[in-house]
Amino acid sequence: MQTAYARMVYDRYQRNQRADGGRARRRATLAHLLKDACRRLIAFLFTQVGVCGLVVAYNIMGAFAFRAIEGDYGDAAPEEAALLLREDAVKRLWNITARLNILEQTQWRQEVTRALEDFQGDVVPLVKAKGYRGVLPSQAWSFSAALMYSLSVYTTIGYGNLTPRTEWGKIATILYAIVGMPLMLLYMSNVGEVLAHIFKFIYFRACSCDAGSMGYYRSGSGNLRPIPVTARRVEEPKEGGKKGQGLRRTVPITYCLMVIAIYVACGGAIFSQWERWSLLDACYFSYISLSTIGFGDLVPGRTVAGKNEDEEVESQQIIVTVYLLVGSALVAMCFNLMQEETIENLKTFWRRLGCLRKNSHSGNEEGPSVTGG
Amino acid sequence: MLFIPRAGREQKARRRKAITQPTTCLRTEQRWFKCQWLSAEQSPSSQAWSRQCSVASCSSLTFPALRWMKMGEHRGSGLVRGLKMVITFAFSHLGLCAFVAAYTVAGAFLFRELEQKNILPHYDSSTHRAALLRDLHNITERVVGEVASGGAWQEVFNSSGWHEEMRERLQRFEDALVTAVGNQLYDQGPDEQRERWNVIGSLFYCVTVITTIGYGHISPRTRLGKMVTIFYAIIGIPLMLLCLTNIGDAMASSFRFMYRRVCCVCCNRNQEAEEESPLTNPTNSGSGEAVEPAPYTPPPKYKPSRRNMLISPPISATIHRGSDNPLKPPMLEPPSNPSSKASTPKPPRPLHAQLTLNDIEANRIVAECAAYTKTPVPGMIIPPSPEHSQNECHDYEMLPPTMHVSLPATSRHTPDPSTPSTPLSKDAPPAEWTGPKENGGPHIVIEEHFERLPSNSSTRPGSPALTTSTHHASSMSLAVSSSVSRPWPPSTPGGLMPYANEAEEAPQHIPGRQPPRSPGKTLVVYNTLSGDALLEQSKVARRMALMNKGGFGQARQDATTVFTDPVSGQAVNGDMLGLSYRPIPPDTSDADNRVPIPIVLAFVASYLGVGALLFTWLEGWSLMDAGYFCFITLSTIGFGDFVPGKSLGYETQEAQIKLVTGSLYLMFGLAVLAMSFNLVQEEVVIKCKAFALWIGLMKE
């Protein structure tokens, strides 16, 4: 039958070949080649390496775009207004000084104080309403600052130390976020999975050395690699209580949390050195950034943005960007592992409660861990 | 709620089926079926269970209690039952919402306690001004000293850079001022700072933390406050996500319900009215099933999931493409006018020969492929009479069309020997599942559906019964899938060569069971799709066919494996071919009335628009700014350049009202987003998967 079928197919194939003319076919194949190349390109872009490259490229592209929109062609009206205000104040002071003799202390002081009060009263609403930052947009939107801005947009951190002022900047931000957030999710799931695999491998390799000390890895010590999921599923329900835990090939939650904590602490140590924050402040900054809360009360390079030590600030901001990108992948990895572990735990829990008949878990509890990633 | 009784019935039926189904398996596929059913039995039931629990506990609190009583009647003491109830309530919508609300309020009081004591040295403008004044005076005096030493004082003033020094000093003053205003320390005395962390303010702060928005308009300043924030977020963020997911689920199902009620009723009222009568028929006549031993009980759990939609269209597409056989070229080319078929009052008999030939041609290919891949095709039933098993399947013209036309009438009414033993008939499924069972076999039901065809297909000949009413579509697909999923008769005569038999015999049944789809385009035998999948299928099939014909799929490259999945490029094996039973997706009842993506997007966009209007009115921002604020908020980016009530400084009554409005809008918006994710998710996943398969990223 197989031969019969093959013959049938072959006949048809031959006939098709005959039917199609030579030229038409060649053109078709050329189109195929093109399409195939496109397909391969897209396929590459969706691999782990491709996604990393895509995210980085997207970030850099965003940096340039926002720099162009907000920095070069941005709205510098508040800064110009502030400059005018300052000039006016100086002129007024000059007038006061020129008119009054400097020796008339009280009179001079009164007038200057009034002038300063007026100046302050003009500046404050400028800051409050128009978002005056004290720095010209072209300086504030340096390349690294724009890099951090675009990162904070598509990771939904949103520090808010730099915000678009022009309408086009706002529209571009919205569009950038719409495209960027799914991309970021893709990146997190893709890279997080790879990292999870690596971490698992390392973990079990490390654990096999001191199998006795760890409570998690008791049996099956000869096999270094984690058992595939199906095998684990089959094996597990048979083990009850402690033995089931012994067989488990998921990384315990504490380790995942430890990885995150170590990463946060490392970031804290680095940032506290750079920014002269306290260690707690720096750790707080890392955590708030990695959890994408992003208050923006502490932002690297903020205090000195665009004023002095330009190059140092730039490099620091770029390093912070890389730190956050890697960190989000790491967090995704930990969520990945924790989700596995949580599901296993919940399954056991439900089974023990008797809510579930078989070794299935209710979809209800999967929610947080799934969406958490 | 509508779902509860139905879900209960489903589950009961499922439990019974779990017992009955594997016994009907035959030895050839017994193992396969069994493991499929075993694996499938667990997840859907549990999912349905959790769903029921959530739905029931949402509607009324008595339901979970009843359910738990029922579930725990054979096990568990009162304590366990109570614990279960508590847990169920905790994970129901109401419980989760209450928990999140309580958590937020607790956090508000906690942070108020922590932060209100901490008063920062606020920016006192008078002291800063005094310092500035002193500096200015010093500068001026120094210059005056130079003047006193000699020279025209105006030149001295100009040359000594008095202006520059003044300007520089002013700028420093201004910078301090800007920083102070940005950090909200400007003119914020102890009272104002304390006021900022009042209950409402800290409530809003907590909301911005656990939703990860993080405006940063107020942020903790004390060490303890920072550490507490970290731990508060560690617990709060997953909790919030869980709550949002849950609420999104509930909202999505209600949205679907409303969508179906509002939109589809308006659009297809007349069509539904037409379908009303045949729809009620099988359910009402289900009472007769107890008398009649059910020859075949449809596997209720194995309504094939929508995922299989990806399997069927490729097959049909491949067949369609490959069927330009020189022997029968004219019959296969167009979807030969369906109206002619639709207008026939009694379908099985007056089928056009042309149509039948199409089917036969296609079916033979399928059969041969099945034989080729050694695949048992469940749709092809071996009748008890073995006398037709003489042919060899590679012969193209062996099967005379007349035989196939005439056969359905005879074979339809023969009771199948594969009927399960009579005791099982007591465990007959409830009326919903009984459609295929009446009158001794699934064929009748399908014929019935087929007979219903003309009325429907007058409007849409291509896929009439599939698009008009989702309920109808699902029931029909049930019937089809049941007929397809019928196991092999145990008394197969040619037991050694079951595939050859099947390959030969299969076409005989095809005309009778031709479901109302575009003839000659897709194969009916493999139509093991659930209703929504059928809905989707026509679209996807066409697209796949195009894809296939275009030839940039891999299917074209290796023409020897005809049953290549055009997306994965792999030869379709038995699991993928006909036996495409998977566990039910968690909410098939919801999936029946899916909401198209554009509508969901429009809903979200309109929510954003309403928010923009609201904040334009409330805050006086421009429309652009308000829309930008809504987007930045709902995407949880949260820059904090626009915060409701920011311009008023968070202390006044009005600002607090705005804060409350903003947080309400925000919470509800997040729920709306979760809902739209829920609505869109499945379709997007399917599309992405198809795309990934197409570009060769994913195998299988």
UniProtKB/TrEMBL annotation, chain A:
GO terms for biological process: stabilization of membrane potential. It is a multi-pass membrane protein. It is found in: Membrane. InterPro entries: 2pore_dom_K_chnl (IPR003280), K_chnl_dom (IPR013099). GO terms for cellular component: plasma membrane. Its main location: membrane. The keyword RNA-binding does not apply. The keyword Ion transport applies. GO terms for molecular function: outward rectifier potassium channel activity; potassium ion leak channel activity. Pfam families: Ion_trans_2 (PF07885). The chain crosses the membrane at residues 41-66, 140-159, 171-188, 252-271, 318-338. Residues 139-195, 259-340 form the Potassium channel domain. Belongs to the two pore domain potassium channel (TC 1.A.1.8) family. This is Potassium channel domain-containing protein. It comes from Scylla paramamosain (Mud crab).
TrEMBL record, chain B:
Residues 473-486 have a biased composition (Low complexity). The chain crosses the membrane at residues 85-111, 197-218, 230-252, 599-620, 657-680. One of its GO terms (molecular function) is potassium ion leak channel activity. It comes from the Eukaryota. The keyword Secreted does not apply. It is a multi-pass membrane protein. Keywords: Ion channel, Ion transport, Membrane, Transmembrane, Transmembrane helix, Transport. One of its GO terms (cellular component) is plasma membrane. Residues 327-337 have a biased composition (Pro residues). Residues 278-287, 454-472 have a biased composition (Polar residues). InterPro entries: 2pore_dom_K_chnl (IPR003280), K_chnl_dom (IPR013099). GO terms for biological process: stabilization of membrane potential. Residues 191-251, 608-682 form the Potassium channel domain. Gene3D superfamilies: 1.10.287.70. It is found in: Membrane. Residues 274-352, 405-499 are annotated as: Disordered. Belongs to the two pore domain potassium channel (TC 1.A.1.8) family. This is Potassium channel domain-containing protein. It comes from Scylla paramamosain.
